[in-house]
Amino acid sequence: MGKLSFRAFNPDRDGKLVTAFARDEALCSFGDHRRFERMFGRDGERYVPWLQRGRKAMLAYEGETPVGMVVLGTYKPDPTIGYVAQYYLIEQARGRSLGDELDTFACQSLRDKGFTHARLRASLSNIRALRFYRRRGWYDVGPHPRKPELHYFEKPLQ
């Protein structure tokens, strides 16, 4: 059994926490908060409404402590593909194989929804994430059409 348990995001109880997680995820992925602020507002006020539009946000707990989250949905250009919108672990939880548990949970959740493949996108500058994705069986399927610094990665859900 893994170290993590997963609980569904509750907008009233968890809104500030998931917004803070997403803001830090943007910093880890892109090196600053500008992209996050452009998408969700300076204070992240549009993040929770974004989550509530067809996405499944799950908080990851180690005991009673929230240590991360995973956000899942459907890949809009091809609704037969599941989409991992975000993986996130707090700094203290990184480097302890908890990311493997996030990936296992995400892939199993998407498989349970009937998807046979999952997709995500990653910044080519996020070397740590790229190593993780490749180690977990994700493969590069090419650049985002409007943002070539981002590449899509895909994984069969067997």
Task: Provide the spatial order of strands within the biggest beta sheet.
Answer: 1-2-3-4-5-7-6
What is the number of helices?
A: 5
What distance lies between the first and last C-alpha atoms, to the nearest angstrom?
20 Å
How many individual β-strands?
Answer: 7
Mean pLDDT comes to 93
Please provide the ordered H/E string of secondary-structure elements: EHHHEEEHEHEE
Structural class: alpha+beta
The 3D shape can be described as globular
Helical fraction? 25-40%
Estimated share of beta-strand residues: 25-35%
What is the rounded Rg?
15 Å
**Biggest pleated-sheet summary:** 7 strands, mixed
Ranges with pLDDT <50 over ≥5 residues?
A: none
SSE map:
Layout: E1 4-8, H1 11-30, H2 34-40, H3 47-51, E2 56-62, E3 65-74, E4 82-89, H4 98-112, E5 117-123, H5 127-135, E6 139-143, E7 150-156
Helix pairs in contact: 1-2
Description:
It is built from five helices and seven strands, in the order βαααβββαβαββ. By secondary structure, it is an alpha+beta fold. Strands 1-2-3-4-5-7-6 form a seven-stranded mixed sheet, sandwiched between helices.
Quick synopsis:
Helix content is 35%, strand content 31%. It has helices at 11-30, 34-40, 47-51, 98-112, 127-135; strands at 4-8, 56-62, 65-74, 82-89, 117-123, 139-143, 150-156. The longest helix is centred in the first third of the chain and has 20 residues, at 11-30.
List keywords for this structure.
158 residues; seven-stranded mixed beta sheet
